[in-house]
C-alpha cells in the first residue's frame, strides 16, 4: 500500500509530498510508521475498557494539530518547537504485530489505535500481520475525524469500532484552533461514512466523542444538534469534560478548566436534543488526564499499564 505515500493525499490537508522519499507534510511524518507508546488503558468508555483494559497504541504525528492537544509530545513536538525530539520509534508491520500480541497477552480487550489517520496504509499492513499472528481482538479507530472518505474506506475490513471526535462544527473555531476551516465539513462526512461502513457489518459500532471547550458552549450545542439530527439512531455520543490547559502551549486556546455551571448546562441540553444513550465523563478539573510521553508509563498507574515504549526514551 506504499504508493499512497508517494503524492500524499491521505487526509484533507492534501499536502502532495513524497513521504516515501523522506519528505513530510503537515502531519510531520514520513512513510515510516512510528509509535509513541502502547499501554493497557483504563480511561476509555467503560465497554471499551471491560475488565482487561483497552490495548492502546499511540501513533506519532498528527494531521490535525489542535493547539490544546494533550498528546502534543508525540503529535506535534519537534526538536524545533520544544527542544526535545518527538518521542516515537519506527516499526515494521511485523513489529506492529508484536506490539498487538504483547497487548493481547497482557489481557487487552481490544486494539485501540490513536491518531493514525496519516498512517492508514502502514497500519493496515500491521493489522494484517497481527491477524496472521492470531490476534483476534476487535480493532478501534480512535481519530480526530479529519479524514477523507476514500482513506476511511481502506479501513473497512480492518476496523470494528470507530471512535471519531466531533470537535466543532464552527469553521472559525476550527481555523483558530486547528488551522483547518474545512474540519467541520470533513469530520461530518467522515462520521457519516463510518456509520455507513458499520451498518454494512454485523458487529461494528460508532462512538462520537465531543470534548467540551470552556467558553465555547455554542459550539457544543451545534455538535449536539448535528448528532441528534444525523447520527443518534446509529451511533453513541461520548461527552468529554477533561479539557486541560497545557502550560506554555496553545496560548490561543482556553486557559482554564470547564466550570461546573458549563458542565450542567451541557448535560441539560442532552434532554433538549433527546440524546438518551451514550457516555459522559464526570465533572473533572485537574491534570490527571494529561499524559507525559517522556515516561515509560505516560499516565498514572490507575489509568494505564505500559506494555511497549520507544527504546530511545
Ligand atoms: S497525511 Fe500528512 S502528508 Fe498526507 S495529506 Fe495528510 S497531513 Fe499531508
Account of the protein in words:
With 313 residues, the chain is an alpha/beta fold. It has a single domain (2-308), classed as Alpha-Beta Barrel (TIM Barrel). The protein is 31% helix and 16% strand. It is built from 10 helices and 10 strands. Strands 1, 2, 3, 4, 5, 6, 7, 8, 9 and 10 form a 10-stranded mixed sheet that branches. Strand 7, helix 9 (217-230) and strand 8 form a beta-alpha-beta unit. It binds iron/sulfur cluster (SF4). Iron/sulfur cluster binds at residues 8-11, 13-15, 17, 25-27, 63, 118.
Describe how the helices and strands are arranged.
Layout: E1 34-41, H1 46-49, E2 54-59, H2 72-75, H3 79-82, E3 89-90, H4 93-105, E4 111-114, H5 120-132, E5 139-143, H6 149-154, E6 161-164, H7 171-178, H8 183-199, E7 205-211, H9 217-230, E8 236-240, H10 260-272, E9 278-280, E10 304-308
Parallel strand pairs: 2-4, 4-5, 5-6, 6-7, 7-8, 8-9
Antiparallel strand pairs: 1-2, 1-3, 1-10
Bound molecules: iron/sulfur cluster.
Iron/sulfur cluster binds at residues 8-11, 13-15, 17, 25-27, 63, 118.
Amino acid at each position: 500500500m506504499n504508493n499512497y505515500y508517494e503524492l500524499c493525499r491521505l487526509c484533507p490537508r492534501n499536502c502532495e509530498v513524497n513521504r516515501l522519499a523522506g519528505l513530510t507534510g503537515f502531519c510531520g511524518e514520513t512513510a515510516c510508521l512510528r509509535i509513541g507508546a502502547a499501554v493497557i488503558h483504563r480511561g476509555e468508555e467503560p465497554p471499551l475498557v471491560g475488565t482487561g483494559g483497552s490495548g492502546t497504541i499511540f501513533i506519532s504525528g498528527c494531521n490535525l494539530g489542535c493547539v490544546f492537544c494533550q498528546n502534543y509530545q508525540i503529535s506535534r513536538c519537534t526538536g524545533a518547537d520544544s527542544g526535545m525530539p518527538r518521542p516515537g520509534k519506527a516499526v515494521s508491520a511485523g513489529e506492529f504485530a508484536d506490539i498487538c500480541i504483547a497487548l493481547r497477552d497482557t489481557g487487552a480487550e481490544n486494539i485501540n489505535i490513536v491518531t493514525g489517520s496519516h498512517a492508514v496504509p502502514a497500519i493496515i499492513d500491521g493489522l494484517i500481520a497481527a491477524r496472521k499472528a492470531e490476534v483476534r481482538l476487535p480493532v478501534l479507530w480512535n481519530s480526530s475525524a479529519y479524514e477523507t472518505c476514500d482513506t476511511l474506506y481502506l479501513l473497512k475490513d480492518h476496523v470494528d469500532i470507530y471512535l471519531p471526535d466531533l470537535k466543532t462544527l464552527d469553521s472559525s473555531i476550527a481555523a483558530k484552533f486547528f488551522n483547518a476551516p474545512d474540519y467541520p465539513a470533513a469530520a461530518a462526512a467522515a462520521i457519516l461514512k463510518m456509520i455507513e461502513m458499520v451498518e454494512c457489518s454485523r458487529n461494528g459500532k460508532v462512538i462520537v466523542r465531543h470534548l467540551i471547550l470552556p467558553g465555547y458552549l455554542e459550539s457544543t450545542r451545534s455538535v449536539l444538534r448535528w448528532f441528534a439530527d444525523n447520527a443518534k439512531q446509529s451511533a453513541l455520543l461520548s461527552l468529554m469534560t477533561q479539557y486541560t490547559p497545557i502550560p506554555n502551549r496553545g496560548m490561543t486556546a482556553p486557559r482554564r478548566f470547564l466550570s461546573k455551571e458549563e458542565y450542567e448546562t451541557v448535560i441539560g441540553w442532552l434532554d433538549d436534543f433527546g440524546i438518551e444513550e451514550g457516555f459522559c465523563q464526570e465533572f473533572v478539573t485537574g491534570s490527571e488526564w494529561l499524559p507525559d510521553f517522556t515516561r515509560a508509563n505516560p499516565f498514572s498507574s490507575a489509568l494505564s499499564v505500559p506494555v511497549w515504549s520507544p527504546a530511545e526514551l
